[in-house]
Amino acid sequence: MSVVAGERPRVQVLADTVADQIAAGEVVERPASVVKELVENALDAGASAVRVELEDGGKVLIRVSDDGAGMDREDARLALQRHATSKIRTATDLIGVATFGFRGEALPAIASVSRFELETSGTGEDATRLRVSGGKVEGTDDTARQRGTTVTVRGLFYNTPARRKFLRATATETRAAVEALTVLALTRPDVAFSLSNDGRSLLDCPPATRLIDRVRALWGTELADTLLSVSHRAGPLEITGLVQRPAQARPAGRKGYVFVRGRPIRDPFILRAAEAGYRSTIAPGDRPSLLLFLDLPGDAVDVNVHPAKLEARFRDKFFVEKVVEEGVRAALAPLESAVPLSGTGYQVPAFGGVSIPLELFAAHHSIADTRYPIAPVLQLFDTYIVFQANQAVSIVDQHSAHERVLYEDVMRQLSGDGAPAQRLLLPLTLDFAPAELDAIEAHRELLARVGFEIEPFSGRSIVVHTAPNPHPRFEAARCLQELVADLAGGRFGGWQNRLERFAATYACRAAIKAGQALDVNEMRELVVRLLSATLPAHDVHGRPSMVQLPKEELERRFGRT
Ligand SMILES: Nc1ncnc2c1ncn2[C@@H]1O[C@H](COP(=O)(O)OP(=O)(O)OP(=O)(O)O)[C@@H](O)[C@H]1O
Ligand SMILES: [Mg+2]
């Protein structure tokens, strides 16, 4: 029966099956959602291995088997009823709920729109088989199986043709199911997962102890080797996980996952906050891979705000975003974020702690920072500086390195007293195009802060009274011309923040160029300043400023190990 608008139907309570089908509309959208719900149940039941089998991308069959706690017969019957759950008893149990499920609606919803079969055993002796079609229980019998549960879902949406029509091509549904399992596999590296479609294995993850091993099993070594660990705490919030080295971020194809209290959550704002942590280390438009696990007390977040539990609501979202950004930044800061020269994924331990007399060259430069046990040795091709530090050979690109150093200096100077400038004995007079004169006018104050004191002269000419002196071979006129051309031409246009954009442009133009011969003291000073920078491993374009060849790798290549 359907109601025609305008007529007055009687109010009635819906039959359970109808209510389940309606609930299914929210919980079960496609085979992937069935996979998600059944695998979550398996994990909640303490499974150590979960197997997913699909036929025709799940359109014909979805089977999820686990070796978890299983159910006795009475529980198995109850589990098929709406609002039947073993996971919470009262509404207050929802605060800090640690299981994936808590609503008691997934199984009845799935069973109402499929031919459903549940086999389960809590003891490994008495096992129960329950068959349900379109929500109606068709039979219960004894069977034999090991401890655990197998749910088989055939003919999804067979009784709701309108919804069946929305199922996509097998390849698309398969991909979605693999993705659903992948996300859950990331939450539990200790559990084994596998998935096959029409007998072909598509995912096979052995149990692992570390997240990085799970990542390797899911996506391969190539991606895993580009990731750095995050571990950061602020107040009640702890952030862990893996983030990609800036130099290896690409505009497309990144992996971006957020987990809150162990649950996968879709949260573009948190991903964006994490990307903000990359600022000044990646080119605008590059998207690093991010796997972020947020842990915070149960009462600081509500996980019951979305029909498929794909969103969470934080009590203090602003705080969470701030800490995520901080955490990512802290992960990128140490030298481990430098790109390893070899593909082995070996990471160099952080500098520091090794005592090496630095008087050797401390006398030659102004920065008496003795934290870093380095002794720059060599310039190659007038462009790269090679030195040994701790257990690696490091190779620095002199332009990128100086750009990073200047960028951080300038960001400080722009918000502080400004840079030391040198008064020019002979003021420079330079000509500019009209658009460039506009750019100079618009950036007059910022230019002054980095050391360029400029006055209009006549027509298209300006006079420069003072200039910065970032290195001995600095050419003030050339730098200013290039800088102004960039500012007028909108280069660095992807940079949101005006100060940062200016600082990056200036740093790029004022830095020592490639192809410039340096003396030993200049090299040492540059390296020491680079190693003292907050984000030493990357320049402002997202290129590495340093690559490292671990000693271990040398030993491997020379057959010493
Ligand atoms: N694989 C399983 N192993 C053991 N028990 C299970 C399994 N799947 C379901 N159950 C039991 O059946 C109950 C109902 O499962 P269902 O998924 O419908 O609800 P839920 O997981 O409690 O909540 P939600 O609807 O939020 O997923 C569970 O609470 C659990 O006790
Ligand atoms: Mg469930």
Main sheet summary: 8 strands, mixed
Low-confidence runs of at least 5 consecutive residues: 343-371
User: Averaged pLDDT, please?
Assistant: 88
Identify every distinct bound molecule in the structure, by name, code or SMILES: adenosine-5'-triphosphate, magnesium ion
Terminal CA distance reads 78 Å
Percentage of β-strand residues: 15-25%
Number of strands: 23
Shape: elongated
Rg calc: 31 Å
Structural class: alpha+beta
Name the helicity range.
25-40%
Q: Looking across the biggest beta sheet, what order are the strands in? A: 5-4-3-6-2-1-7-8
- The count of helical stretches stands at 18
Can you give a write-up of this model?
The chain has 561 residues and is α+β, with helices and mostly antiparallel strands. Helix content is 33%, strand content 24%. The chain has an 8-stranded mixed sheet with strand order 5-4-3-6-2-1-7-8. A hairpin with a 5-residue loop joins strand 3 and strand 4 (127-133). It is elongated, with a radius of gyration of 31 Å. The termini are far apart. Residues 343-371 have low confidence and may be disordered. Bound molecules: adenosine-5'-triphosphate and magnesium ion. Magnesium ion binds at residues 37, 40-41, 101, 106. Residues 37, 40-41, 101, 106 line the site of magnesium ion (MG).
A few lines on this structure:
This protein is of the alpha+beta class and 561 residues long. It is 33% helix and 24% strand. Strand 4 (127-133) and strand 5 form a beta hairpin.
